[in-house]
Amino acid sequence: MSTVHQPDLKDRPARLTVGVVGAGRVGPALAASLQLAGHRPVAVSGVSDASRRRAETMLPDVPLVPPAEVLQRADLVLLTVPDDVLPGLVAGLAETGAVRPGQLLVHTSGRFGAKVLDPALRAGALPLALHPAMTFTGTPVDVQRLAGCSFGVTAPEELRLAAEALVIEMGGEPEWISEQNRPLYHAALALGANHLVTLVAQSMELLRTAGVAAPDRMLGPLLGAALDNALRSGDAALTGPVARGDAGTVAAHVTELRKHAPQTVAGYLAMARATADRALAHGLLKPELAEDLLGVLADGGHAGQAGEGTDGTNGSDGTTGTEGNDR
């Protein structure tokens, strides 16, 4: 079992009682992680049957109580609710007097910084925004996966050390995000992670339609290599027909997608155009090949002869694979 580096005792916050408002996938995992660091979960609230079952699994023997009672019992409260719910929840808790002076109030929204907690701050709470940049399953495996996870952290300067200590105790790595940059930070993560899931799911469905029995086994090595190369090399990792300027191949793709999965066409065209723009900007796509390709994309894939490349082959270099050359 892997061990998580803990901060020195002098840097660690005092052992705290922990409460969770919103027993979705994130809150129970963070509370369980804090429990491993010596803190004590004392209360959790959940609305749905699924959230209550999750709390019972991840935080056994921790009582399920209403949100206001969670705040009465806990020194550190995790507000792990959907983004759109958070402002109203904070305002309501502050208005009803549930917030206690000196109480650490932590939300895990990527979109919001610490200012969304201003109503609680005015009531004397200590506001922290700690967003784990990870996908959660709602199972105990999430606790182990927090090791090495980056957290987007926003907090008042005087709470910086406390925020960092809590993140480190959960096994994470704090990354400071300014208040004004929180929405952009969150958009970047959603673009890279959430949309990736959609792309992979669509790709697997198309492979099944094409007769591939185990699309996950086929995609796994390809996607793993593509992700690794992209993280290491950025745009230089671009390969495939768009980066090569294979207008005929791209037109053939769109023709097949319209036939078998028309709901994927808009996304394919948008991503192909973005890929072409980046390939051009970085000198990966030759301008003389880009004209036909951009014409196909602008025409929605109707231009060109489906299945034929610009030189009469299945690609401009006479190949058919996704990496017909080193680009």
TrEMBL record:
Residues 149-275 form the DUF2520 domain. SUPFAM superfamilies: 6-phosphogluconate dehydrogenase C-terminal domain-like, NAD(P)-binding Rossmann-fold domains. Keywords: Ubiquinone. Residues 301-312 have a biased composition (Gly residues). Pfam families: DUF2520, Rossmann-like. Residues 300-327 are annotated as: Disordered. Residues 12-132 form the Putative oxidoreductase/dehydrogenase Rossmann-like domain. Residues 313-327 have a biased composition (Low complexity). The keyword Iron-sulfur does not apply. It comes from the Bacteria. This is NADH-ubiquinone oxidoreductase. The lineage of its organism: Bacteria, Bacillati, Actinomycetota, Actinomycetes, Kitasatosporales.
